[in-house]
Amino acid sequence: MNTTRIALTKGSLRIPPTYFAVQHALALADDFDFRMFTMAAEVTDADVLRGIRVEDASAGSLVPSRRLSWSRRERALPLLFGRMRRQIQQFAPEVVHQHFANWSQPAVAASRRLGVPLLLTVHGADVYVPLTPLSERNAFGKPMLRWHQRTVTRAFDASTRILAVSEYLAGMVVRAGADSARVEVHYQGVDTDLYRPAAAVRDGIPRVVFVGALSPAKGVRDLIRASIDIVGGVPHELVLVGDGALRAEAEAAAAEHSHIDVRGPVDRAGVRDALSGASVFVLPTQRYGRWREAAGLVSLEAQASGVPAIVYDSGGAAEMLEDGSTGVVVPEGDIPALGDAIRSVLALPGADWRAMSARARDFVVEKRSLRTSAAELSAHYRDLTEEHS
Length: 389
Known about the structure:
This protein is an alpha/beta fold. It has 15 helices and 15 strands.
């Protein structure tokens, strides 16, 4: 085993659903010595805990973390900056790898004190912080936004290298003030051994699947509307997996339209099961305020499962498929076009659908797999340690 120590850092960590923060470490466990540092952890997946040690700065601290709700635990993070920074320093890593530029204070401070490279992966919401004018906040919100903006800017400045999860986000992080010479694209990738085609698909009524937050940003309303508009001519089942602000609205639609099934939140195995046997996956993610989807890993999970994907042309979502080959890209907010795209995939003859399914799987295996992504990240780690030495 390589003794190169990599400190993975993130303000807070909940698994499920944020597997992306540890998935590369689990894949590269034979090549590097990883440890995960955070200020609030809630990891219920035993396989993850067996694969990587998680240091929760709130554990054993004066913060009564176990008696607080998750939202209150996150509000207590500033009380734990010093403790997390000391834990990172005690590990003495050769690279500090921070996920998200916000809540990055302990990682930035530890990397500076240790004199080691800071690798920063930006995921989307953090990048919009410097791009948000103070005028959009009220008197109470301005100080908090200003504080987060300073944090994000300092993370940009302190980073030896910045990895963006899509070409779209790479452009946005430069607009937000990062040095373009230090920004590179690193597609996250998905586990193509975990997500793979089911033995039998397209039996019975076609199934349209959505997995994600039931929120306006993810386009749930558009998908429900498009499904209702076409179900009379194209019978299908619409399966909505997830939770969020629009769950009650989705359940009301399901009560009125029998083809809609709202399943609520599930773990990683539940996502895999939901995709099993699906005819098409739809993610109509769209602009919400300043936010747009940075990537959309679940689209890759679907395609790895042999399920064609349909997405809006918003943010980096379209980078997660090959339009016309592994799925369909629809103009953002165009509900009739979304319905037409769903109809077109459901209407494919069996042989044509199987060909699209195979292309979807091949695209992810060849270009967006965890194996490929982990190899690229390993090269970044080695470059940084060699440059530093």
